[in-house]
Amino acid sequence: MVRRLLVALALLLPLGTGPACAAPAPVTALHQLFDRAWEQDLVDNPLAATYYGETRFNDRWPDLTRASLERSHGHDLEVLGELRRIRRSALVPAEQLSYDLFEREYEERNAEWPFHTEAYGISASGGVQTLSELTEIMPFETVADYEAWLKRLGSLPQFLDQTAALLRDSARDRRTQPRVLMERVVPQLAQQLVATPEDSPFYQPFRRFPERIPAAERERLAAAARAAIAGGVLPAYQRFDRFFREEYLPAATASASRTRRTVTPITATGSGITRPPASAPTRSTRSACGKSRATAPRCRRSWTRSGSRARCRSSSRSCAPTRSSTTRRQTSCTAPTS
């Protein structure tokens, strides 16, 4: 009797454990990878998350330390490796298209890593000098919304110092934007060098509160904002302005040249994606230059998924759409110049 029971259990065991241990279907694995990669991009780039309307990261800035940049690059390598473990041939043509575009995106990210695109994270149209523009797109409807902005203000000095350290290293390596463009940043920075906290663009949300916020809370939040701006934001911008004028601007290159890169076209066919042979004609395109960007140590496009199909959406570690664009508009990133 006991022997028959053991035999029955042995026969049932594979049936009970097999499905739980089985690998997910290729399409499921692909979509899960899209979701994880997108989430990681939001974590790496809180500013882009804010522009996309994702409020979970409205209380923080990107981490621009070398360790963080290298860790993010490691994630990109892991994503590409995981993607290539998914059997493309098992996907329907539409999913093969998503697979190929996603693969190309991460191939480009990893290919540009040695060229230190993080060195060009400030431009004449955007950078740390325009961070206060976030107040135009962040929600300020609840006390929690204001608390998130206060927390961001509290850590802004660290972000500015990290940006200065990054640009200082880049200038030492002779990786800078053209001086003719950087001279336009000086008056933009001057707008942040105000005499009182109330005059700071960062104080804008505290000039008008929603009716639902009680008067006592308004006073508390406004006082906290004045303290954060006076004690941290203004001194940090003074330090950055001094660094920019005395160190970075003199080291900026005297001339500008267009950066061009060759893009190999990908053709969609009824059976999926066809890559042209190496001898096929290619088109040379100028790298796009972004507008109203915050500091962007690396340019990248990120993915999101709508329904069962993935689509590519441009972002960067600190890249943002133009002021006039919506949160769904594709962004463009500042191209390295030499």
Protein architecture, described:
The protein is mainly α and 338 residues long. The protein has a domain at 26-254. It is 48% helix and 9% strand. The strands form 3 sheets. It has a two-stranded antiparallel ribbon. The chain has a two-stranded antiparallel sheet with strand order 2-3. It is flat, with a radius of gyration of 24 Å.
Question: TL;DR?
Answer:
The chain has 338 residues and is mostly helical. The chain has 9 helices and 6 strands; from the N terminus they run αααααααααββββββ.
Structural class: mainly alpha
The average pLDDT score comes to 79
Give a short account of the largest sheet: 2 strands, antiparallel
The helix count comes to: 9
| Strand line-up across the major sheet | 1-4
Task: Pick out its properties.
two-stranded antiparallel ribbon, mainly alpha, 9 helices, 338 residues, 6 strands
Q: How do the helices and strands line up, and which of them pair or pack?
A:
Blueprint: H1 2-21, H2 26-44, H3 46-51, H4 66-84, H5 93-112, H6 143-172, H7 179-182, H8 185-190, H9 215-251, E1 260-263, E2 267-269, E3 272-274, E4 283-286, E5 299-306, E6 309-316
